[in-house]
Amino acid sequence: MTQQTAVQEQQVASKTVKFEIQRQDTPESAPYFEKFEIPYRPNMNVISALMEIRRNPVNAEGKKTTPVNWDMNCLEEVCGACSMVINGRPRQSCTALVDQLTQPIKLEPMRTFPVVRDLVVDREFMFDSLKRIKAWIPIDGTYDLGEGPRMPERKRQWTYELSKCMTCGVCLEACPNVNDKTNFIGPALLSQVRLFNAHPTGSMNKDERLATIMSDGGLGECGNSQNCVVACPKGIPLTTSIAALNRDTTVQMFKNFFGSDHMVD
Ligand code: SF4
Ligand code: FES
């Protein structure tokens, strides 16, 4: 080992990472901040730092504390479980690299959802909304239906982009209109309406889905802040979906008014 490498390793070994983490012991109890200072390792992400705190739950004052709770699963920005607010920005903690964050790194739970404990939130509202909008393709699984209907390639490509949604909740957290004063289902769910309505079989329930987003908590609650599309970690074109649904619901409104035997494409 050269002298220069030894000095570099010594510098890394003495480096630390500072965190300010919002803690909450139960859904009902008051939140509070706790500071941590942990040894630095190259290429750390927020989750590996939280794992280090869990391994040795001692706060920055040197006092033994309870391990911080958070959710995670895939560790590669696919499952959506690890969402939290990092330095004021809702995002996935598995892809938040410590080297790219200003310290102290502030971790808070997404406040759009009820806090279960520390950084763990309950995203049930989103899953209930998926049921409300019938976010599935109804098929009869009792016998082999053969291949599904083919989709034009261009349509398949844009629907594939919409299908990347991992129900992480980040766009709901970023949206000023998703709050406890409205029932707004949020941008992700609107985009899923567009996705399932675009499918040749899913379009059988198109009218029902449009009726849902034309009712309380639907499209009318969108304030067009456009925060959602900036926040989405999967780059889903949420505002394009919302614009397309505005057009679809307008057509549906005329259809409801004048009556039609035909599905609106
Ligand atoms: S649209 Fe994007 S930000 Fe919103 S829930 Fe889906 S993946 Fe997350
Ligand atoms: S752990 Fe799955 S998205 Fe981060």
TrEMBL record:
Keywords: 2Fe-2S, 3Fe-4S, 4Fe-4S, Iron, Iron-sulfur, Metal-binding, Oxidoreductase, Tricarboxylic acid cycle. Residues 156-184 form the 4Fe-4S ferredoxin-type domain. Its EC number is 1.3.5.1. SUPFAM superfamilies: 2Fe-2S ferredoxin-like, alpha-helical ferredoxin. Its cofactor is [3Fe-4S] cluster; [2Fe-2S] cluster; [4Fe-4S] cluster. This is succinate dehydrogenase. Belongs to the succinate dehydrogenase/fumarate reductase iron-sulfur protein family. It is an enzyme of class 1 (oxidoreductase). The lineage of its organism: Bacteria, Bacillati, Bacillota, Bacilli, Bacillales. InterPro entries: 2Fe-2S_ferredoxin-like_sf (IPR036010), 4Fe4S_Fe-S-bd (IPR017896), 4Fe4S_Fe_S_CS (IPR017900), Beta-grasp_dom_sf (IPR012675), Helical_ferredxn (IPR009051), SDH/FRD_Iron-Sulfur (IPR050573), Succ_DH/fum_Rdtase_Fe-S (IPR004489), Succ_DH/fum_Rdtase_N (IPR025192).
